[in-house]
Amino acid sequence: MGSWSKTWFSVVLKPNQRYTFTMFVRVANMKDAPKIGLMKHKENKWYHPVTDEEYRFDNLILDDKWHMYTITFDSNFTDLNYQFCLFEAGNITTAYIDDVYLFEIEGGGNQKPPEEPPEVIDPDTICEDADNEFIKSGWTDKGFESGVFEGTWAQRHEAVTIAKGSKEEKTTHSGEYALKMSNDTGNWARTVYQITLQPYTTYTFTMFARGLAGASSPRVGLMRKAPGDKWYHPTTGEDFVPTRLTMDGIWHQYTMTFTTNGTDLVYGLLLCDGNTAATVYVDDLYLFKVGEDTPEPNPDQEFICDNSKNYFTSVMGWESNGFENGLESSFYGDSNRFKVQDGSVSEKTTHSGTKALVLQGNKSYTKHGIRGITLEANTTYMFTMYYRFVGSGDLRVGLMRAPGGDKFYDPVTGTESKFQTFEKDGEWHRSTITFETGSADLKYEFCMWDRNDDNTTVYVDDLYLFKASADTIMIPKIKTDKTAQIS
Fold this sequence. Notes:
mainly beta, 2 helices
């Protein structure tokens, strides 16, 4: 059976130029033909250089003889990535290729460059200098007119410079300087400007960027930082996937509005070549608060539900929201370290009552958890737990969507194996998330994972899982409990 393996050689052509491509091919098999030829490559798809049809290769003659195949085509101004492709295409065959030519010829040059629409900037997407968080953090202005790097650059690769240019040459959006990222060969080079924002606050971020045609989009934009050198898109939650740039040689505006949570407050202007040989200019950046600050939840109150609404008690049959009767559901893991232990509130080994669920960390990556949680489709739920870390290890704790295949996803962002951020000061804290189920993948698990650390112990007590539309009880917070709201 033939495979679908793909081999190609990439080349970047000149814009608005006529080319001839010639190759000699002999297909030894008389029945099946592979896919061989020059193709235009954009956004991970292949197009015929002449017809622009997707994945359309010229037909090869199957007679075990050498044949010449030639096409003449004109490049445009934007899609300049081409690849000489050799795809097996699932066929059992043997093919020989020799004497391959690609060269410029006279003629052509008749294509019109893309029209640049008149720039119209929505005033709600920009701000005064006094409100720009980048300027507050140490920049002289919204652009880079000082000509030097200012503020807190946590990482800086030599591929990123502050380059002098002009608006006429399209090397700046305004003024005489712009941030420039240019790499001859992609190597995931990364530069990050780091900034800390306020909790539970809505911001608008705007940047102007121009990517030269002929390369795939690199990774440029504002990202939310998480532990372990993880970066997430502020609105989609995607891991290390900033805004996709339009690589057509024209300045474009990119804007998004997002709301911070209570814990992950470090953000970064991320510039990574994404393993592409791309040239990008970035200029005129804005980051500012939108409207009134969103108030933090009252630290002296919390929302829980009564036992008739708590999934653990009403559906799974627990006697209480804690662990006073031990583990009352199907669980997995190392029962010598993942177990219910006796304790007391005064000793901080329980949040309430006389028992709590405990995981003693281990030099392993063992997963422990409680199974049997199946929720309703297209429903909003709130999950609350109380936790206490003794030690600073990176143990993972929380409710996760578990569709199977040893895959686990954050219920809020959908990010694989992404847990909430926790306080690790030896005190009890509360972690709360609100999430909406989809139409499928409705199985969830309460997880506690080792992370190769045997010096950390985690205590968990008083779990609530209920529909957000259900009646809630507002109760005064126990004074010894420090609440960490995570949403």
